[in-house]
Design brief:
Radius of gyration: 12 Å
Largest sheet: 3 strands, mixed
Number of helices: 0
Strand content: 35-45%
CATH topology: Archaeosine Trna-guanine Transglycosylase, Chain: A, domain 4
Number of strands: 9
Order of helices and strands: EEEEEEEEE
Shape: globular
Helix content: under 10%
CATH class: Mainly Beta
Number of domains: 1
Length: 96
C-alpha cells in the first residue's frame, strides 16, 4: 500500500511524496492523519495531491491547514487534485 502525506488534520487533500500512484491503487495517509485508506481513482504523479474527502465545486481546497484554492468541479475521494480541477489562490498577482 502506498503512502501519502497529510500536512494538517483539517486538510482535504494529501500529497504524493514517495512515488507516483496508479489508478486503482490503495493508499494510506501518513503525517497528521494516519488512519485514512483511500483508493486512487486516477493516476497521480509524485508531488501532486489526492483528495481524502469529497470536495464540492466551489468549495475550498485545504493543504497546510490553509486554503490553496477552490474546486472548479466536484472532486471525489481518491481523485487527482491539481490545476485541472482547482483555481489556485497562490502565486497569483490578482489576489492579495
Amino acid at each position: 500500500m502506498k503512502k501519502v502525506f497529510v500536512i494538517d488534520a483539517s486538510d482535504n487533500v494529501a500529497t504524493v511524496v514517495v512515488e507516483p500512484i496508479s489508478n486503482g491503487e490503495d493508499v494510506v495517509t501518513n503525517g497528521q492523519l494516519t488512519d485514512l485508506n483511500v483508493k486512487a481513482t486516477q493516476d497521480i504523479p509524485y508531488g501532486h495531491k489526492i483528495a481524502i474527502k469529497d470536495i464540492a465545486e466551489g468549495e475550498t481546497v485545504f493543504k497546510y491547514g490553509l486554503s490553496i484554492g477552490n474546486a472548479t468541479t466536484n472532486i471525489k475521494v481518491g481523485d487527482h487534485v491539481h490545476i485541472h480541477n482547482v483555481d489556485s489562490n497562490r502565486g497569483r498577482g490578482d489576489r492579495q
